[in-house]
Structures are given as C-alpha cells and as structure tokens.
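Tokens as discussed.
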C-alpha cells in the first residue's frame, strides 16, 4: 500500500498576540451559578429548566469545549509529540502555526450531503471549526517542529534543544559500612 501521510507546513509568525487561554471549567461554573441563582424559584418543579429569557449568547464561547478535538501531549526522551484526532478531515483543512511560544492548531470542516429520491429530497450541511493552543515548554526547539497528517491523525513533533537532552549518568552505589 502507498503511504498516505502528508507533511503539513508549520508557520512561524512574529508580532502576533498570544492566543487567549482556554477555560474548560467556565461553562460548568456558569451552570452551577445559574442553578444556585434559580434555587429559590421553581427549583422543585424543574431544577434544570431554563426560561426563554435566560439564554447564553453565542459570543461567550460556550461551544469551545464541545467542538475541540482530542489531543495527546506526550514527552519523550528527545522531544514532545502532540497527536490530534481529526476524523473526516484532510491536511488542506488544518493549519499549524507557532507564535510567541504558542503552538496553535486550527481546522475547519465543511461537509455537504445531498440525496434525491423519488419520494424525498435530503440535503444536509455541517460546518465547524476549532482552534487549540499550547504553550511550548522551554526545552522545545521551535526551529525544528514538524507536522504530519495520516489517516485522520495530526502528529506534531517538537524536538528538545540539545542542551535539554541530558545523557544518562550511572551513579555508583557504595556500601554503608
């Protein structure tokens, strides 16, 4: 079989502001706050009911956590490896950038499906995008970062600086007597 992996260029940008941090517990905190605010009114009827006037605006970032892909960040002896699961995506829809010590992975998926039959017409569209940012460790060699995309998994390899890779040192064990 032919190798279906593809190299993705990693762009290095200077002068770009650092991405804002991802706050995974913010949505949970808002829900708990709302639950306590609603404690005295209609709690016993339906504790998780939300009135029509009590909506969360889309611009507050409530969907960030739900659409973020799974990421494994692993430290190895010679570097770091970031594996991002992106099923159904192509390497042309993924962008990896490095700016101000932050590695940013962005992607966008657009899918359209249309089915015409004698008795019905079905048309579905799904669109979505994500962005994940990671602070690079100080030992990372930012000049030699590489990224590959193979079978729906993006793998970003971040080697360590040569001075950060400590050689193994054997320590002699002496008797206590």
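Sequence:
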């Amino acid at each position: 079989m032919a190798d279906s992996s593809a190299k993705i260029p990693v762009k290095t940008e200077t002068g770009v502001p650092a991405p804002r941090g991802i706050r995974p517990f913010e949505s949970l905190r808002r829900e708990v706050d709302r639950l306590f605010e609603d404690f005295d009114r209609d709690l016993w009827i339906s504790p998780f009911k939300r009135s029509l006037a009590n909506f969360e605006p889309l611009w507050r970032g409530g969907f960030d956590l739900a659409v973020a892909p799974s990421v494994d960040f692993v430290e190895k002896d010679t570097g770091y490896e970031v594996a991002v699961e992106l099923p159904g995506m192509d390497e042309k829809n993924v962008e990896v950038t490095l700016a101000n010590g932050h590695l940013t992975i962005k992607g966008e998926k657009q899918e359209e499906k249309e089915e015409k039959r004698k008795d019905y017409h079905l048309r579905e569209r799904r669109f979505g995008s994500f962005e994940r940012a990671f602070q690079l460790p100080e030992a990372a060699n930012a000049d030699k970062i590489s990224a590959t995309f193979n079978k729906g998994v993006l793998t970003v390899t971040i080697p360590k600086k040569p001075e950060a890779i400590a050689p193994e040192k054997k320590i002699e064990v002496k008797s206590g007597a």
